[in-house]
């Protein structure tokens, strides 16, 4: 069953990428005015699709959980196991959150006498292999962390110049994912340091997701598609409105580079960590989903509120993130004070569009999306499904759509054109 759907996905991706590579732009939807320069630039995908690492992973953005945003270095094998259990019992795992990722601080501060990176015996006494076995027994996957420098950011051993041995070790433990950080890098260019680990992971023969964490310093969107399955485009997120919105805007600049096989990574989710309110977290999750960002939960899944779980479990928003077309949505229009009334949108499979009306002012406002701003011909009739109210709010909207949006809040929709003005649907 899993194998069969994998084959279907690979076949459709191959057909899709062939058409992309040939044209260098996506097959634009029939209802878009491709001859109109403004609209064809709107969802520019000219850098998409031909810089693939090709390890079979990341056909859609990765989903899972990581220790860092909530626990930082306060981790141990118990909390990882309890989180794996909680991912199952909350239903999050069955919604696609399957990677259980251990961030910095899992390894002992020095290599052993054989030069091997080993788990901290105080916090991971049973070892990473035992943890991988546990996580796998639940149908989940295990991630570890290292650094393309001589130390990690928390001054544990890094993997620079030790790529081959470390990768073999992780593979022998059954690791499925590597986040690879950028501290203590000796000033060597990332274009030299990151490919070495790609090749080392590949040489193990074990398929491992490769997540670059270069903080966006050397514009990794421009080169990392050949190297990793995702690349951080920004500095670390923190649990504040200013951090989250700043990062969204930076990540937005690289939209044309994302696609199946390799994604822009604006860092992990802060939803549920307490520094933002319900509306702000809803916006954070909606925009991350629309931007085809990795959805890596960063809160304590063992102890979530109903609001947090409602946000993280929104199937319809997750489906936008995991849409097989794999085109990053982006900001297409803004107005109002400080341009805070924003329209973000992106194409989806089956000729649909996803749209977020995002109010970045603190007062409630009415935000209007004109069809011309989101790439629809003005005369087209659209059915609007509200992904937070979970219902169709209009069967036939024409020309534009307006909604009242809470301060620091958002509304999110899928737009399905009721008829096409061209023939090829
Ligand atoms: C494991 O880590 C969790 C989270 O930081 C902590 O609450 C717990 O006390 C730790 N357990 C042990 C045995 O150290
Ligand atoms: C190694 O790289 C090749 C070429 O990109 C790819 O076909 C293969 O699937 C990779 N293998 C692993 C284990 O990642
Ligand atoms: C959080 O991020 C913002 C914006 O990037 C930054 O100005 C601030 O210093 C950060 N706060 C902390 C505690 O790191
Ligand atoms: C659970 O989370 C709440 C905040 O939402 C916090 O006050 C409480 O201490 C947490 N409980 C545990 C056991 O961590």
Automatic annotation (TrEMBL):
Keyword Hydrolase belongs to the record: yes
Keywords recorded for this protein, A-Z: Disulfide bond, Glycosidase, Hydrolase, Signal
Top enzyme class: hydrolase
SUPFAM superfamilies according to UniProt: (Trans)glycosidases (SSF51445), Glycosyl hydrolase domain (SSF51011)
Signal peptide: 1-22
InterPro entries referenced in this protein's UniProt entry, alphabetically: Aldolase_TIM (IPR013785), GH (IPR017853), Glyco_hydro_27 (IPR002241), Glyco_hydro_27/36_CS (IPR000111), Glyco_hydro_b (IPR013780), Melibiase_C (IPR041233)
CDD domains: GH27
Classification via Pfam families: Melibiase_2, Melibiase_C
Annotated catalysed reactions: Hydrolysis of terminal, non-reducing alpha-D-galactose residues in alpha-D-galactosides, including galactose oligosaccharides, galactomannans and galactolipids
Enzyme Commission designation: 3.2.1.22
Residues in Alpha galactosidase C-terminal domain copies: 340-415
PROSITE patterns associated with the record: ALPHA_GALACTOSIDASE (PS00512)
Family recorded in the similarity comment: Belongs to the glycosyl hydrolase 27 family.
Protein name per its UniProtKB record: Alpha-galactosidase
Organism: Solanum pennellii
């Amino acid at each position: 069953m899993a194998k069969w759907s994998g084959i279907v996905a690979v076949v459709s991706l191959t057909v899709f990428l062939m058409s992309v590579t040939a044209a260098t732009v996506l097959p634009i939807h029939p209802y878009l005015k491709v001859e109109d320069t403004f609209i064809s630039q709107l969802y520019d995908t000219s850098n998409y699709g031909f810089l693939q690492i090709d390890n079979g992973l990341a056909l859609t953005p990765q989903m899972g959980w990581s220790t860092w945003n909530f626990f930082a270095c306060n981790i141990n094998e118990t909390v990882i196991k309890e989180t794996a259990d909680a991912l199952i019992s909350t239903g999050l795992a069955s919604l696609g959150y399957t990677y259980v990722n251990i961030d910095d601080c899992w390894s002992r501060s020095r290599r052993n006498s054989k030069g091997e990176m080993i788990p901290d015996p105080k916090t991971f006494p049973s070892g990473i292999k035992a943890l991988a076995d546990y996580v796998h027994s639940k149908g989940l996957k295990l991630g570890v962390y290292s650094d393309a420098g001589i130390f990690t950011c928390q001054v544990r051993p890094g993997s620079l110049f030790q790529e081959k041995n470390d990768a073999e070790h992780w593979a022998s433990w059954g690791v499925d994912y590597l986040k690879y950080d950028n501290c203590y890098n000796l000033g060597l260019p990332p274009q030299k340091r990151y490919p070495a680990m790609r090749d080392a992971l590949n040489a193990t023969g074990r398929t491992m997701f490769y997540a670059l964490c270069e903080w966006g310093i050397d514009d990794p969107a421009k080169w990392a598609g050949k190297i990793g399955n995702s690349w951080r485009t920004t500095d670390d997120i923190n649990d504040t409105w200013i951090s989250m919105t700043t990062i969204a805007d930076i990540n937005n600049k690289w939209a044309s580079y994302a696609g199946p096989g390799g994604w822009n990574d604006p860092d992990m989710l802060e939803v549920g960590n307490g520094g933002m309110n319900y509306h702000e977290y809803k916006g954070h999750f909606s925009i991350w989903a629309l931007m085809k960002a990795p959805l890596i939960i960063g809160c304590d899944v063992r102890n979530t509120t109903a609001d947090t779980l409602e946000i993280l479990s929104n199937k319809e928003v997750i489906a936008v993130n995991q849409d097989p077309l794999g085109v990053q949505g982006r900001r297409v229009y803004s107005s109002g004070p400080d341009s805070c009334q924003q329209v973000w949108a992106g194409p989806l499979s089956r000729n649909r569009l996803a749209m977020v009306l995002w109010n970045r002012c603190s007062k409630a406002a009415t935000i209007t999306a004109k069809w011309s701003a989101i790439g629809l011909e003005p005369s087209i009739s659209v059915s609007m499904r509200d992904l937070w109210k979970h219902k169709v709010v209009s069967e036939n909207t024409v020309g534009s759509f307006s909604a009242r949006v809470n301060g620091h809040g958002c509304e999110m929709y899928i737009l399905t054109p009721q008829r096409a003005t061209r023939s090829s649907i």
